[in-house]
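re: that chain from earlier
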Amino acid sequence: MTARPITIPASNPISNLRIIWRYALSTGGPLSISVAHFLASLLILHTLSPKDFGIFSFALIVMPLCLSASGALLVVSLTGATAKFKISRDEAFEAHLKANLLFSTGATIVSGALALGSGADAGVAALLGLYNGAMCLRWFARAAAFIANNPSRVALSDLCYSLSLLGGLGLFVGLHGMTITHAALVMFASAILATASFGPEYLKKQFLVALNAPLQSYVAQWRDLTRWSLLGVLLTEITANAHAYLVTFISGPRSFALLAVGALFMRPVSLCLSALPDVERPFMARSIANGNLAKAERCVREFRVMGSATWVATGLLCVAVLNWFPSLVLKQDYRLTDVTTVVALWSAIMVMRLLRTPESVLLQAAGEFQVLARTTYLSSAISIVLTLALLLSCGPILSLIGILAGDGVMTAQTLWAARKWKRAHG
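^ sequence. v structure.
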């Protein structure tokens, strides 16, 4: 009997181009925002006091928290509702639009209070609160566009935000009139313009149709999925950013400014890891619902490749700036050794997040939110206790080791949970 030859299927150029185009649209916008935030932070760093830079940087820490909570409360729920077809798409969408209005209002109040506690005056705190509320409205619109397979609209919104932010801040810098109030005003205006770029039809649904929409279908999703997803987000926030809150509220925004300078360099990686889940989660959810686990795992691998490429590119940028252009980050009497240490710690932290995030999104797509929440119990406790101890005994810089330790524990538990789920469903 003659053995049959083993054939290796040829790569499909069209399929490869589709993958490249999908990631180009999904990552191009977030990377443009990352560049905009990086350049905006440099402008603030060079034109305002360390205290104001600390307030600005703290606002950029609170914003991802609001977006993550929005993803947990709304985006994951909408993805599950539409992927599993338990209820009509229109009913689910309108209910989530109404929930989005309520959540964005709450985010405005909470983030404004946090800004006030960070040392901002009342006017700046109000603007930063409104900025986060508008960003939450935009984040849900962004996710809804991905679910509707309209990534070009997302890219347009991301680009609109980036250009508006840089254009507005550049104008005030050019006029030699930059203040923290002007910076907060530009941030708020940019978020509004970026939300408006989703078009009048979407805005009509968000602000008019949603007012009369029933919340019953969303409440059902809350009982089944969202409460566990939200718990996971809150505990993950403690694990990831305990230093930001502890350093800012205990030592003040000026002390947090040094940590924020180091975090600037990792902004592309962090934004990539926060944006890609909205692209991949719907693909994974549909694949799992159709019983195609292999396709979902392929999305995990593609996610990790894109994140790794971003981390490498960001690392090369760090090396170049710190070696050849250190004056970009040393204008406020920050020592190069301190900045280098902070950047190195942030790089290690991002490796931990890069390792676990694809598997975390896979578990989200599978609806395993209770499992994910359990992976954050120990890590959040380690982060807050160790970070506080290091802050009080060794200072703000070494407090980042507490974040690294918590992230390491969470990564190990998430990878183990994902491996266990794959064995059970493979």
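The first helix runs from residue 13 to 47.
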